Amino acid sequence: MPQHQRHPRGGCRPYTSAAMDKILSLIEHYGYLFVFFGVMLGSSGIPFPGATILLATGILVQQGHLDLREAIVFGILGAVIGNQIGYWAGRRGGRPFVLRWGRYVKITPERLERVERFFVRYGGKAVFASRFVSVFRVLGAPVAGMSRMRGGTFLLYSALGGTVWATAVVLLGYFFGQSWAEAQHWSGRAPLLLALLLVVALGLFLAYRWVALYRGS
């Protein structure tokens, strides 16, 4: 039986929302392909729940449906390749393309100008920080392309941000997706959890700087 179709150890799902149940079912059926393409779409400039897919992937890893290493690898590949697609779409399509897609996440021309200034000021750090804010995770790559950021700089920070983000979200689903009460399953992994929290804290700090600018505060 394929690895992603093994029966879960826990016997039940930790979430009851229809959306999460649907995503869990899709990952169970299509395995790593759904993880890859789902995260890729969400990273390319299309509003798609890439973070939720990664969280559900971590839950299914904990249940025994998927392999942790492969889940993280496919999540990272989807994030990085999706970002590259978004970058080149923004570079080719320019401001009209970004505004057209941006209306789905309430991006106005004025807000777009502030985001552009943020990219000009912080460069690659803005690409990294965009991973940790849902609105900017969708539009970060197209805006970087529209702003004519150097391709090598974008790829470097996109790979760093995608690696940290995908790894962190999958691990969050893996460690905390079943039950906070089942501490015995993750209490022995305290060093890894600490490292994860430090990485997330760095990403949130950079994201805070972006959100403050975005809101004009």
Could you describe the 3D structure shown?
Helices cover 73% and strands 0% of the residues. It is mainly α and 217 residues long. It has one domain (3-214). The radius of gyration is 18 Å and the shape is globular.
What is the H/E order? HHHHHHHHH
Rg over CA atoms: 18 Å
Give helix % range: over 70%
Major β-sheet profile:
none
Approximate shape: globular
Task: Give the number of domains.
Answer: 1
Number of helices: 9
Q: Which residues form runs of ≥5 with pLDDT under 50? A: 1-16, 180-191
Task: Work out the strand percent.
Answer: under 5%
Q: What is the typical, i.e. mean, pLDDT?
A: 77
Work out the number of β strands. 0
- Structural class, from secondary structure content? mainly alpha
* Alpha carbon gap, first and last residue: 54 Å
In short:
With 217 residues, the chain is mostly helical. Helices cover 73% and strands 0% of the residues. The protein is globular.
Key words describing this protein structure:
mainly alpha; globular
Describe the secondary structure blueprint for this structure.
Blueprint: H1 18-30, H2 32-43, H3 50-63, H4 68-102, H5 109-122, H6 124-130, H7 134-146, H8 151-176, H9 190-214
Helix pairs in contact: 1-3, 2-3, 2-4, 3-4, 3-8, 4-7, 4-8, 6-8, 6-9, 8-9
